[in-house]
Design goal:
By secondary structure, this protein is an alpha+beta fold. It is built from 4 helices and 6 strands; from the N terminus they run E-E-H-E-H-E-E-H-E-H. The protein starts with a strand and ends with a helix. Pfam families: DUF695.
């Protein structure tokens, strides 16, 4: 099985930053110019501030079941996931930011334990992503 992600060194022991490694980044940004940043708050499970297993399971299902199907429909590209000190952020590049938010809400509202906010940056073209990697 081909690995799709690599871990970016952030210098913060309380942070995991996964970045896509299996795509042509400039071409993907050209095709999906808008950023929808999905910010999900979780309860910190321990002193290292990572999510508990139930939280990991929910967001893994969100990523594997929901976001991958949107990628297969050529609607979005998930390019990074940042987990740091109580917040999980999904860097989702897309063609239609409003529809991407509505599509994501449908899945995320199935579990009201995690507060989620959305930030839309039209014509980001990878700027925010370049700031974190």
């Amino acid at each position: 099985m081909e690995e799709k992600w690599y871990l970016e060194n952030t210098g913060n022991l309380n942070q995991i930053l996964r970045v896509r490694d299996d795509i042509d980044l400039p071409q993907t940004i050209k095709e999906f110019p808008h950023l929808v940043l999905i910010k999900c708050e979780y309860h910190v499970a321990d002193d290292i501030m990572f999510p508990d297993p139930a939280c990991i399971a929910f967001f893994t299902a969100f990523e594997n079941n929901h976001l991958e199907s949107l990628e297969e429909e050529n609607k979005v590209a998930l390019l990074a996931v940042d987990i740091c000190e109580g917040t999980m952020q999904f860097y989702l590049y897309c063609k239609d930011p409003e529809q991407t938010v509505y599509d994501s809400i449908d899945f995320l509202k199935s579990n009201n334990l995690y507060k989620c906010d959305f930030e839309i940056i039209k014509d980001d073209k990878g700027k925010r992503l370049n700031q974190i990697i």
